[in-house]
Amino acid sequence: MSNPKLVHNKELSIGEALIPVIALVAMLAYNVFIFKDDAVSGSNQFILLMGAAVAAAVGIFNKVRFDSMMDNVGSNLKSVSGAIIILLLVGSLAAAWLISGVIPAMIYYGIKLINPIIFLPTAVIISALISIATGSSWTTSATIGIALVAIGKAIGLPAGMVAGAVLSGAYFGDKMSPLSDTTNLAAAMAGTNLFTHIKYMAYTTVPTIVITLIVFSIFSSTYDVGDIKGTEVLLTAITQKFSITPWLFVVPLTVIGLIIKKVQPVVALLAGTLLGCVAAIIAQPQLVSGGGHAIYQQLMQAITSGIDIETSNASLNDLFSAGGMSGMLGTVWLIICAMVFGGIMEAIGALSRISSALLGLAKSVFGLFASTVASCLALNLTASDQYLAIVVPGKMFEKAYKDKGLAPQNLSRTLEDSGTVTSALIPWNTCGAFQQATLQVDVTDYFVYAIFNYLSPFVTLLFAAFSIKIAQLKK
């Protein structure tokens, strides 16, 4: 493998480039068939490594040095180091906010104030507003998203349905916020102005979120929640275990304020964890007690190893459980294995070869849009990273759009409509892994309810097919 003669590389054929993809999909399908929902607990991670091994074999056959593949894997892992740190901090924050009473307070006031008949569209709107303000779907899920899922479960709604509403709103806000990294990245890759990009996205994004709200309104009106049964029992169980006060909302509002002020998410989440620990000492002495050393031990154990708080109501006990940092290790493991597969696929030239093949199919304007969407979806599936799903097609298709006389905002909008939002629908993608770990809902459970996420690519293709709002290059 270290033979210097292997340095020279020949271009992969499309068939060779697709071999690892076909092998991965086949192995994942069989693995999910065998393990069902338990597949994400570890076996899927090994399947990703098996797919990487197939890709490496194809690369070696085509004279790609193994060292080069490993170097690219190292670069990929470095690129997600920030995401891994954020994941660990989200785990610690969730545990700190649980033991401090922040999450119980959100559930308590949510049950009292939110009308269950309109809970789902309300969840979409709240998530959208938070995501626009913060520019991050991840932050939205890690803060208000956790509470909304918990409230939804408490009033008897399926967790997957609520998670789908949260993600629909969160990714709408992520797309439309000028603070969003993916929004800025898509505009930069296509070579258009940020606010031109956001304005142009509104043509497809607003109808999509309107349809989403209508569907969730129908879900809310037809789902048999009626009056929240046992409301007083739930509220009493919460107040028996926690000291509930509106002052606890200072903690999440501070974190959201830090992010709006463009403080790095790592810093904001760390501050949220520490503030949660302080709030636990002040507000929940019945849970955190025993003096300095004992308090330190209890808090550290909660944020690192997790915590389970039992109440007098069995239905609440699942809500008052957090895995801490250790609860995120399975997701970290998944991301690492996905980056190994994506890194080797990139190193052997498979990703660019697949994108080139898709570009070759773009004979018409609609074909160009369809090829862009397909390329973004393929990269989300194979590279397991939404940034690559924006960057690679952005580089590949920029000239093609100009050659067709299309303004660059057509490309930037399509990148977001298909690359950004669909990343949360793939369990081994960094976004899918993060969302299912944070919301504690499997992708397979929320997939069908993440309406905005899977509807967006279809809407952008519909606009292309009927030439609706397709801007031309100015001569």
In short:
The chain has about 475 residues and is an all-alpha fold.
Question: What order do the helices and strands follow?
Answer: HHHHHHHHHHHHHHEHEHHHHHHHH
Low-confidence stretches: 1-9
Helix amount, in percent? over 70%
Strand order within the widest sheet? 1-2
Cα-atom radius of gyration: 23 Å
Described by strand count, sense and barrel closure, the largest sheet is:
2 strands, antiparallel
Query: Based on DSSP secondary structure assignment, what is the total number of beta strands?
Result: 2
Shape: globular
Protein architecture, described:
The chain is mainly α. The protein has a domain at 82-326. The protein is built from 23 helices and two strands. It has helices at residues 14-35, 43-61, 66-79, 81-99, 102-113, 119-134, 137-154, 159-176, 181-190, 194-222, 231-241, 250-260, 265-283, 292-305, 314-317, 329-347, 350-360, 365-382, 386-403, 408-420, 430-439, 443-446, 451-465, and strands at 307-308, 321-322. Strands 1-2 form a two-stranded antiparallel ribbon. Helix 1 (14-35) packs across helix 17 and helix 6 runs antiparallel to helix 10 (194-222). The radius of gyration is 23 Å and the shape is globular. Residues 1-9 have low confidence and may be disordered.
